[in-house]
Amino acid sequence: MPGAEGRALSAGDERSAFEILDRALDTARADEADAVLVSADRNISRFANSNLHQNMSEESAELTLRVIAGRAMGVASTTVFDDESIAATAQLARDAARHARPLPNFSGLYRENEAAPALRTFDERALISPEAKARALREMFDRGAAHQVQFAGSYTTGIVSVACGNTHGVRRFCRATSNDATVIGLHAAGSGYATTCSRSSIDLAALGDEAVEKATLRGGKNEDLQPAAYDVILESPAIAEVLDWVNMISLSGQSFEDGSSFFVGNIGRRILSERFTLTDDSIDEQFLPFPFDMEGLPRRLITLIEAGVPRTPVVDKAYADRLSLPATANAWHLGSSDHGSAFHLAIAAGDASREELIASTKLGIWVTRFNYVNGLLEPRSALMTGTTRDGTFLIRDGEVTARLPNLRWTQSIVEGFSNIEGITRERRRVSAWYNTFGGTFAPAMKIRGWHFTGKT
Fold first, then answer.
1. Cβ-based neighbours of 326, under 8 Å, separated by 6 or more
2. Hey, which residues does 412 pair with through a beta bridge?
């Protein structure tokens, strides 16, 4: 039998992954059990001052086993897959279950085993070598140098393999490619930012050109503004940063149960703009498709907010039972305290272009992205604070007239998403550091009366 090292390196293969899952489930010795094996093979290239300074490849795999004993759950994980290590992991999970409280209304693990959607998650074009990445970066560096712009950022490529199953015969497997690039352009006039992610290839040169445009736009024309509420045009990365916090404080089963979510008391009531529809969409192949959650439930389109009306939080199986809600297939870790997380957030596209949003603004601020966001100020209104970064611009009489310093803002996102005045047709895929499986598919958005409180 191969050793632990060999098991880790082969865990991304479907046959090997199911063999590890089967041994873990056989060892569980509980009323019910399920398990997830996540394997990753990634290469990350980091760069600064238009020089590639780090290229790192990593292979990893982790098995998580959950046992159910008397409706109580216990979870344990291991990165070593020999029989002894798996048996020790199962014992830890059983010990945890013995000390846990029974789950209210829990009807057991998923067992229907319907077919998961057939999605194209793997694209050979995403599998480029470190040498090819270095050549693409060199092209971007050279194009930036023509505008006196240097670049910093990262470019990550890889494959993630996920196998999950349970003692009711559920078995799922998926291999997904992923590319993710973040580019910051640095110029004497300021900085600019561009990012995207994809299951396929990324046009790195186009990202670099976008960062150059933001870094050099209205160079030498700098103004300031007094703290006040201004109309804003938020680019996709800024929207994605806000939604990462909304996901945590408002969309999960835990936040719904503890009363901190703005969904509580508002299901079926219009509290946001009619322009705003938010879904959890892992089956749209122009986004980042993925066919099932970590409990093996088939993924489908889940409408979270429809034309400003909250419809449902996202829940795992335990909290679907606990809260008497339909299952949404949103378990992304068997031991998660959130009990549901949306990993494929998508905002419905509008009918405007970014240029039209700018042209419609008499006095406003164009924001590329946010930084240092704190979304825990007052979760019931999603009150947050943060700063702008890497491209903040003044709009006057429908034109971009000057660069602004980075600005501090404090804003209720419930209020902000109630004051939407326009949404672009174009949407951008944006990743998050914690999100292995998906990201956010966001347009740019014009919002009335965003509260700026100072500058940094």
1. 312, 320
2. 383
